[in-house]
UniProtKB/TrEMBL annotation, chain A:
A GO term from the CC aspect: mitochondria-associated endoplasmic reticulum membrane contact site
Principal location listed in the UniProt entry: cytoplasm
Domain Autophagy protein ATG5 UblA: residue ranges: 16-109
Keyword Cytoplasm assigned: yes
Subcellular location: Cytoplasm
All copies of domain Autophagy protein ATG5 alpha-helical bundle region, residue ranges: 123-179
Protein name stated in the entry: Autophagy protein 5
The keyword Ubl conjugation is annotated on this UniProt entry: yes
Function: Required for autophagy.
Segments of this protein annotated with the region Disordered: 280-316
Pfam family, one: ATG5_UblA
Gene Ontology molecular function: any one: Atg8-family ligase activity
From TrEMBL, chain B:
Family: Belongs to the ATG10 family.
GO CC, alphabetical: cytosol
Name by which UniProt lists this protein: Ubiquitin-like-conjugating enzyme ATG10
Pfam family for this entry, one: Autophagy_act_C
Organism of derivation: Sesamum indicum
GO MF term (any one): Atg12 conjugating enzyme activity
BP-aspect Gene Ontology terms: autophagosome assembly; autophagy of mitochondrion; protein modification by small protein conjugation
Gene from which this protein is expressed: LOC105170507
Gene3D superfamilies given in the database record: 3.30.1460.50
């Protein structure tokens, strides 16, 4: 996150924090006890927020129609229970191949699917899920999460409130105490020359307290579409979370003079989707990367270390798999963009960069 | 010999440590449930090799405490060792055994966390009829001092998380403090005094000596010594 004199953050950060998705929320048929059924609720949901946080706004629309019983609220999209701990904007980017506006969701107040979703008993559950993600991010960036563990109660409450209320300026002020700066490369520093002085100041403080790991917190959500689907509009709805691959793996950034791009980061995370020979892929369009053909035969195993992945490739199990689309905060970024810019500007408040990737494969996946 | 100096592992090292641990477990605990490696499901566009996966032991019945604090039928050796952690656990308070309870079974999975760069214990428990246990019921199964420690500690506590491989809610011992206490274990070790970290193939023995204790599962002395002296 860019720190410094600009209290309100960068322009891109302001767009991200102000980002919203129009939802049209329907009460599930099994919970309707009145005729006619209640009309859907129209809600504008912050991208960086979490679905259960909307329940206080939604409940009044439906409370008179509900059967007796205790509320256990959950959301569903075309039969898929929605994981509440994934930010709303990420769920939208992942599940709506073609953005659906308004996004039609179904809400349930009964029958929580406890075998699929972890419990969400109150706003505190969401807060602690958020804090845990922040701890994880802190560990990745700093090698420990002591700054999170030692956060004062007032700071913690203020940080969480800033997320609830979408207050970027408050968030930046409180989170700066956590010292979760991700070291930018030279390119990024040049772009942000006005803040380089304060960055150096922060680094001076960090020199005594913590060690930079050079790792960036990334959560990757991958869904597959089959070869015959030319229009994303025709992609079938995801019926089960088994159809989505989730990779929670940091990206180690190598600043070796050359600019580390978003494309380079994806190579680290999904090396099989990039050709072995080329370090710079030709692009038919900014958002598409050709997997290309590769000969079978002995190839080095994929290493465990993400940092080393850019130097080795494993054999591609399915020839012709390719990245069809990359979405971050609802946009399709050019893959040549500096990764540090993407991280510093498009990161969620949990200090994770959430990336949705659509992978086109030759055969439908049967898992 | 690859060693871990900062209490962490790479995922390749985790695979090495997991293989060594299950072999050593088989050697020293042949009468108990055995650990096995479960490879990750294959995805056509993600690298598939046997190093991606997790260590699993399932249908485990925890050793029961009787009124004297000893374990009936516990095949794990009870000799005391000099380890301070061992002393702490041996002095467990007496728990009244509930004879009415049916045998509860536990599944334990050891999954590598790429974020924390340490192993993470995922677990769940269920009755003989397959009904899953809630956390409060699980805590009744644990040694009393484990429950106390879990309540007090900022570095060893239970949360419910999504199992990274199975996409289902499981309980877990939160990994945020693991690298710190692994470093402490290394410092307590004689060989660590020589400036070396713990050999990778001994990492999980040390790790389990802490994590297993929470459930009353102890490592035999020979296995522990193997971890300590080599």
């Amino acid at each position: 996150m860019v720190m410094g004199d600009k209290g309100g953050g960068t322009e891109a950060q302001q767009y991200v924090w102000g980002g919203a998705i129009p939802l049209q929320i329907h009460l599930h048929d099994s919970e309707v006890t009145t005729l006619p059924p209640p009309p859907p609720a129209l809600i504008l949901a912050p991208r960086i927020g979490y679905l259960p946080l909307l329940v206080p706004q939604i409940k009044p629309f439906f409370s008179s129609s509900l059967p007796p019983g205790v509320d256990t609220v959950w959301f569903e999209y075309k039969g898929l229970p929605l994981k509440w701990y994934i930010p709303t904007g990420v769920l939208f980017d992942l599940l709506c191949a073609e953005p659906e506006r308004p996004w039609n969701l179904t809400i349930h107040f009964r029958g929580y699917p406890g075998n699929i979703l972890t419990p969400c008993e109150s706003e505190d559950s969401i807060k602690w899920s958020f804090i845990n993600a922040l701890k994880e991010a802190a560990y990745i960036i700093n090698g420990n999460c002591k700054n999170i563990m030692n956060m004062s109660q007032p700071d913690q409450a203020e940080l969480w409130r800033s997320v609830l209320n979408g207050q970027l300026e408050v968030y930046l002020r409180v989170s700066s105490k956590l010292k979760l700066d991700i070291v930018g490369d030279d390119f990024s520093l040049k772009l942000n020359s006005s803040t380089s002085k304060s960055n150096q100041g922060v680094n001076d403080l960090d020199a005594t307290g913590t060690t930079r790991t050079g790792r960036v917190p990334v959560r990757l959500y991958i869904r597959t579409i089959d070869e015959d689907t030319d229009d994303l509009e025709d992609a079938p709805a995801i019926g089960s979370w088994e159809k989505v691959s989730y990779i929670n793996r940091p990206v180690e950034v190598h600043s070796e003079g050359k600019c580390f791009t978003l494309n380079d980061a994806l190579k680290v995370l999904l090396p099989e989707l990039f050709t072995e020979a080329s370090s710079t892929n030709a692009h038919t369009s900014g958002a598409e990367v050709e997997g290309g053909q590769r000969s079978d035969g002995d190839s080095s195993r994929s290493p465990g270390e993400t940092g080393a992945a850019s130097n080795e490739h494993s054999q591609l199990p399915s020839d012709g798999a390719e990245i069809k689309l990359v979405r971050i905060q609802g946009i399709k970024p050019q893959l040549e963009i500096p990764f540090s810019w993407v991280v510093n500007n498009l990161m969620n408040p949990d200090h994770y960069l959430h990336i949705c990737v659509y992978v086109k494969v030759l055969e439908p996946i049967t898992i | 010999m690859v060693v871990s100096r900062d209490g962490t592992l790479s995922s390749t090292e985790f695979y090495v440590a997991a293989s060594a641990f299950s072999e050593q477990w088989r050697k020293f605990n042949s009468a108990l449930r055995q650990w096995s490696w479960v490879p990750s499901p294959k995805r056509p566009w993600i690298s598939h090799n046997q190093e991606e996966g997790y260590l699993s032991v399932e249908n485990v019945i925890l050793p029961e405490l009787n009124e004297e604090g000893h374990r009936d039928g516990d095949l794990i050796e009870k000799e005391e060792c000099g380890c301070a952690e061992e002393d702490e656990f041996i002095d467990a308070a007496v728990l009244i055994q509930n004879d009415d309870a049916g045998a509860r079974q536990y599944d334990f999975h050891v999954v590598y966390s790429a974020c924390y760069r340490v192993p993470v214990l995922y677990f769940r428990a269920y009755c003989s009829d397959g009904q899953p246990l809630l956390l409060d019921d699980i805590k009744k199964d644990l040694p009393l001092n484990s429950v106390e420690q879990l309540t007090r500690s900022r570095w060893l506590f239970i949360t419910q998380e999504e199992h990274p491989q199975l996409n289902r809610p499981w309980y877990t011992l939160h990994p945020c403090g693991t690298s710190e206490w692994m470093k402490l274990l290394q410092h307590n070790d004689d060989s660590a005094a020589q400036g070396e970290g713990i050999p990778v193939d001994k990492y999980l023995i040390s790790w389990f000596s802490v994590v297993g204790q929470v459930f009353g599962l102890r490592i035999p002395l020979e296995m522990l010594n193997l971890g300590g002296t080599q």
